[in-house]
Specification:
The structure is a single chain. The chain has 195 residues and is an alpha/beta fold. It has one domain: SGNH hydrolase (Rossmann fold), CATH 3.40.50.1110. It is built from 7 helices and 5 strands. The protein has a 5-stranded parallel β-sheet with strand order 2-1-3-4-5, sandwiched between helices. Helix 3 runs parallel beside helix 5 and helix 5 packs parallel to helix 6.
């Protein structure tokens, strides 16, 4: 009996990361982004988990929503990390539309018995306080509604440091990605170690 529960606990997990350029190593050498760093950390801590990085530069919440059903069928993930919304925000798309897309993705993942980790984003203040606050608040609201753990702001400790960005001032450079992983790891670690 003890051996069965021990092996169930250590059963390998599949983690699907559904994100945009911030997770797709845009402008970085392969293996330098936070997802690759997370894979290394899992190995170092001897946590048996395979990561599928399905992130695409320029991805929006509607693109993620359209791609997720096939990804769930193909990979049958135990955990889905949703890092989307930045491109919706930068295009000034209505918050309710992004929120509806996020809601659909969370529900799809949970219906497929995957646990969800939401990775939140802030957009620059020049979009107006009302819009930026509603956008940021969307993640907390979804987290509460679906009891999904939340990383409030993936660029915490990075966004205010120009030296940590590529020349476009939008995409973090390789030096920033360990800090991004440090923001995501605590919530992710709790999920990957559970059940």
């Amino acid at each position: 009996m003890m051996a069965a529960s021990a092996s169930a606990y250590s059963a390998p997990k599949t983690v699907l990361v559904l994100g945009d350029s911030l997770s797709a190593e845009y402008g970085l050498n392969r293996g330098a982004g936070w997802v690759a760093l997370m894979e290394q950390k899992l190995k170092a801590e001897k946590i048996d988990a395979a990561i599928v990085n399905a992130s695409i530069s320029g991805e929006t919440t509607s693109g993620g929503r359209a791609r997720l059903p096939a990804l769930l069928t193909q990979h049958k993930p135990d955990i889905v990390v949703i890092e989307l919304g930045a491109n919706d925000g930068l295009r000034g798309l209505p918050v309710p539309a992004a929120e509806a897309n996020m809601r659909t993705m969370i529900e799809l993942a949970q219906k497929n018995k995957a646990r969800v980790l939401l990775v939140g984003m802030r957009i620059p203040p020049n979009y107006g306080r009302d819009y930026t606050e509603r956008f940021f608040g969307m993640y907390k609201s979804l987290s509460n509604q679906y009891k999904a753990p939340l990383v409030p702001f993936m660029l915490d400790g990075v966004a205010d440091k120009p030296a940590l960005f590529q020349a476009d001032r939008l995409h973090p450079n390789a030096q920033a990605h360990p800090a991004i992983l440090a923001n995501i790891w605590p919530q992710f670690h709790t999920l990957v170690k559970s059940r």
